[in-house]
Amino acid sequence: MEFFKKIIATSLSKFIIFFIFIILIIIAGLYFKYGNKKQLQTPITQGVKKTILNDTSKKDIENYYNIYKNPYVIYLRQALNAYLAHDSSQACIFQGAVDKRVDQGIVTGLDAFSKEYYKSKFVVVTIDDNSENGKDIQIIFQDKPDRIFYAWVGKNPYEEDCLLGFNSKEDFDKEENKENMKKLIEPYKPLIFDKEHAL
Q: What is the DSSP string of 28-79?
């Protein structure tokens, strides 16, 4: 009888371990299926994808287009134009947003990238409050949609609107990430290449 109890206890232990293992696999599968999508939630992806593809909600599209009336977004366009024209009277651009440098995988400064980007219209991917002041704005340039740029527009010490920071991740140059950008852009082409609302 003792022998059978040991066999049953051993079998039960193996069953419990096997059951836990299966649960972990299911959880991992759900994370990779649904968890990674949360990282890409942006004004473009939050409800707008279904709108473009299924034409179900005009309100989502209107909310997205209203981003282009945001004064910080408009100022970013002014700053890029001022940089291209070498005219500091058009917009304030903090020197830290101009000088090229690379630090911990981040390429910083307008000087670090081709001016062909700035000649293009851009679309807003996200816009969020900056923890210090102003807005953090992620953009993609329509004529060169191969990387996402991060701009910080806010007040300088003299309380003037200013482009305070501009950068992009260094690894966007890697072939794998170029492919990922193409996959990200594909479903949102009607928004990303919309010339009417882009700046």
A: HHHIIIIIHHHTT--TTTSSHHHHHHH---HHHHHHHHHGGG-HHHHHHHHH
